[in-house]
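Practice problem 4.
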């Protein structure tokens, strides 16, 4: 006969197991979908067809508040991925990389800001529209973000910062959210933005960027966007770097899934 406590153990751990399993299988699926990308294909970009381009970024209009999102604003910022976090009271974590103990942080919002920019490889050039990334992750823009009131972290949400579709390798720029004062709104005048943290990873003009998506011709200009059939991928380490990142994520979430299943089995068997 099944014990009631065993049922509660399974119910307690099931959401985490399902979430980690989903992240693993999704990363693996995307890894294989990027196999065999041919960057030497036809130079003509066809409306409605998928394409992959790797080339230099040229900015027409920089991303909103891009100069505040980084300390290295020597070049216009084409796009950046950001997240906002708050410190979890009484919780710390070990930063093995820097060998120090740091406050544990929780993400409560994340998004993608982009301007008007194109990627050109010498033979082909196309404007890139990252808007699909915002829609796919149901995220917000900085101008829509309101800080304060009830700020909470949804552990089962996939923020753009952790997206399988974006691989930006540079270290994140971190600063108090007060740096973005006037860009984000506050719930009331008592909210101190400096108590929150803002992180960003940027794509400046001149960066080499690999993008894959669907071509859409607008007024004679090719634009690469994401669709349900052809997601948008962005990587500053080429498609090989992106596939390597997806492989590592697959292994990471598989290990998480296995560990959680092992805990459930051990608790049920106890």
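Answer key:
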């Amino acid at each position: 006969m099944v014990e009631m406590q065993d049922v509660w153990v399974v119910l307690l751990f099931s959401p985490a197991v399902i979430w980690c399993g989903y992240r693993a299988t999704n990363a693996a699926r995307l890894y294989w979908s990027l196999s065999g990308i041919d960057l030497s294909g036809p130079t003509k970009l066809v409306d409605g067809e998928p394409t992959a381009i790797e080339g230099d970024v040229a900015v027409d209009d920089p991303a909103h508040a891009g100069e505040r999102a980084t300390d290295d604003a020597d070049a216009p910022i084409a796009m950046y991925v950001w997240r906002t976090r708050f410190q979890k009271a009484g919780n710390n974590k070990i930063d093995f990389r820097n060998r120090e103990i740091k406050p544990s942080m929780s993400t409560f919002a994340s998004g993608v800001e982009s301007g008007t920019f194109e990627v050109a490889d010498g033979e082909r050039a196309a404007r890139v529209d990252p808007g699909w990334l915002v829609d796919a992750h149901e995220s917000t823009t900085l101008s829509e973000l309101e800080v304060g009131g009830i700020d909470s972290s949804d552990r089962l949400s996939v923020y753009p910062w952790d997206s399988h579709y974006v691989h930006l390798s540079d270290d994140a720029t971190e600063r108090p959210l007060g740096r973005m004062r006037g860009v984000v709104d506050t719930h009331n005048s008592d909210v101190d933005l400096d108590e929150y943290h803002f992180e960003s990873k940027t794509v400046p003009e001149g960066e080499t960027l690999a993008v894959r998506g669907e071509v859409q011709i607008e007024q004679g200009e090719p634009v690469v966007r994401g669709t349900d059939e052809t997601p948008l991928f962005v990587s500053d380490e080429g498609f090989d770097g992106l596939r390597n990142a997806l492989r590592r994520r697959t292994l990471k979430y598989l290990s998480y899934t296995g560990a959680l299943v092992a805990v459930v089995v051990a608790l049920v068997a106890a």
